[in-house]
Every structure is written in C-alpha cells, then in structure tokens.
Amino acid sequence: MPAPTEVVDDVYDITTREEPRDKRYRVFFSTKATPTLVDTGLQDTTEAVLDGIVDVGVEPERVIITHDHGDHVGGFDAVVERYDPETWVPEKTSLETDHTPDHLYGDQIGRFTAVHVPGHTKHNHALIDEDAGVAIMGDTVFGADHRGLPTGYFHHLPAVYSDDPRAAAF
Length: 170
Hints:
The protein is 14% helix and 33% strand. The protein is α+β, with helices and mostly antiparallel strands.
C-alpha cells in the first residue's frame, strides 16, 4: 500500500486497499490535539491500517466510527488491542466486536461536530471540524475516484449501498 498521504495539515489518508476501477478503501487519521483515527477499515485490511499509523509516527488516542459497516469497523478490535484508545460510536449502533465502545455519540466529539446523515445507514455520520476546514464524510458521499471522475468531485451513494428502503425510489 502507498504511504499515508497528508491531505491537509496533520490529517492523513491511510489507503488500506485499492481495487480495479479506482476503488479505494481508506481511513483518516488526524494528529492534531487528540490524535484521532476515523474508522478502522475492513477486517482483512487491519495490517494496512496499523502500518499506516506506524508510518505517520503518532499513536491514536481516540477512534471514531462513522457507521457500522464492515469496511469501517473491521479493524476495531485490533486497533483497540494495540493502542487502547478512547472509542466513540454513533448512538443506537451495535458493533459485533470484542470491545465495548467507551462512548456513544450524538452531536460533539472533541473538536468535531458529528452530523447525523441517514440514508446510507440509519446511523451514518459526517465529522466536521469547522476551524480546521475539515469534513470527514464517512460514506455520506463517495469521492470521484470511486467512479473515475476528475479529482475534487463527489457523488451520492447509489441506492444499492443504502439500508433505507426509500433510497430504492431515487
């Protein structure tokens, strides 16, 4: 896997797997104030997540999960076992993990505002740090690289990825 990429000051994209047609799986790691890992990747990409953290050179003190799909929570237990960070999971979300989250969140996590964005899942959240100009979208939208569009474009998730039955009508 490529080395972590600093996307803005002290915020890193850790790509955990790349597939044909420019599809990437990744997590984001902010080293500002409280070092925070957002999502933990697929279970079979855990080593890539852990290696990326080592490459950045800062240990996470907090893990925030945006929603409960496997590509966001698969490495949860491994990260908790390695680093023992404080963990945050959306309210009303149940994880099938060996470790119980420390906190269930609604609106605020440290400097992040957690914005409830249902549609992809009932408990999907985006994380906004307005002062830093950072928005971590989870699966609120997909990046252009997922569909081969030019860099800088985003698109809504196709209905096939949604657990909301109303999405099929769009």
